[in-house]
Design goal:
This protein has 298 residues and is α+β, with helices and mostly antiparallel strands. It contains 8 helices and 11 strands. It has 2 domains: 152 residues, no CATH class; 129 residues, LytTr DNA-binding domain (OB fold (Dihydrolipoamide Acetyltransferase, E2P)). It comes from Spirosoma profusum.
């Protein structure tokens, strides 16, 4: 069980996906309370009762959206794909559930007009919410992990892998820097200042990784990886490359498909293995279809 909690879990979600999930969770809470009316809501005699009950769903949506966006932005490093696990997902969702229960208790206090809110010391509703929620949360996270793991593991095993021979990088290094256009075998990458340039043999390029305002261009030189820095955005480098076999696979990576030696999959998605597994490049889900199509077209 402890080994399962340490397994990687998907963490990269857009704002739109987060908002949609928060809305669905809030809608479920509102409908559940309206239909079943637990916690003696069926005995609650008040005007606009339906709207007030729907308010619990609204509070749930707002708390869920805030927690997901705020904490993932504030602690971005902790929510990265490299660190996010099944256990962390369960803890995060459980913490969100706890905050929802607390927020809804305060919402109820506001509706009842309780000035001292002394009844909040009665944590029965909070405890019930926690106990009712923790088991389905754990089950759904584990089920989603198994589903995603099976999906990407099977798909990765079916992807075709092709290799292209290298050309002499030393000859590429001797090209004059004032050549303005790349050739079919050589990439010419120009920095933001339009002066610094880097010539790289197409088939020796492994990948390009972005880091703030710089890109690390990783390529083979004398059969060893070289890592020169280029002051440029990844989008700018991607436009300069403009090849169907060198593609964006992540917000931080552009990879040479001809240098992929193996593709594996886990619950977070595909992993591209290069240079005898020395480099493992993640694939963001938004690039899955493009990557698969390009690999099959090689």
């Amino acid at each position: 069980m402890f080994k399962l909690l340490g397994q990687p879990y998907p963490a990269d979600e857009s704002i739109s996906v987060t908002l949609r999930k928060a809305f669905v969770i809030g809608l479920f809470v509102a409908l559940f309370l309206l239909v079943f009316q637990p916690f003696e809501l069926d005995r609650w005699g008040t005007s606009y009762k339906t709207l007030k009950i729907i308010g619990f769903g609204v509070v749930t949506t707002l708390i869920t959206f805030f927690n997901t966006v705020f904490w993932k932005q504030l602690l971005r490093g902790q929510f990265s794909g490299e660190k996010w696990t099944v256990g962390r997902e369960i803890v995060f969702i459980t913490a969100n559930l706890v905050l929802i229960a607390i927020a809804n208790q305060y919402y109820l206090a506001a509706l009842l007009g309780s000035a001292d809110m002394g009844y909040l010391h009665n944590w029965s509703m909070f405890l019930i919410t926690f106990l009712v929620g923790i088991f389905p949360i754990t089950g759904l996270v584990v089920l989603n992990y198994i589903t995603q793991l099976k999906k990407y593991s099977q798909s990765a095993a079916e992807l075709p892998i092709h290799h292209s021979p290298s050309i002499d990088q030393e000859k590429v290094d001797t090209l004059p820097n004032d050549v303005s256009q790349p050739t079919d075998d050589v990439l010419r990458l120009v920095a933001d200042n339009e002066k610094d340039t880097l010539n790289v043999a197409v088939n020796d390029l492994l990948f390009v990784e972005s880091s703030d305002n710089y890109c690390t261009v990783v390529y083979l030189k004398n059969d060893r990886p070289a890592r020169p820095l280029l002051r440029s955005s990844l989008s700018r480098v991607e436009k300069q490359i403009d090849r169907s076999d060198i593609v964006r696979c992540h917000r931080s990576y552009v990879v040479n498909l001809n240098r992929i030696e193996r593709v594996t999959g886990n619950a977070q998605g595909y992993k591209l293995h290069l240079l005898n597994g020395q480099f493992q490049i993640p694939v963001a889900r938004q690039y899955n279809e493009t990557l698969v199509a390009r690999l099959k077209a090689l």
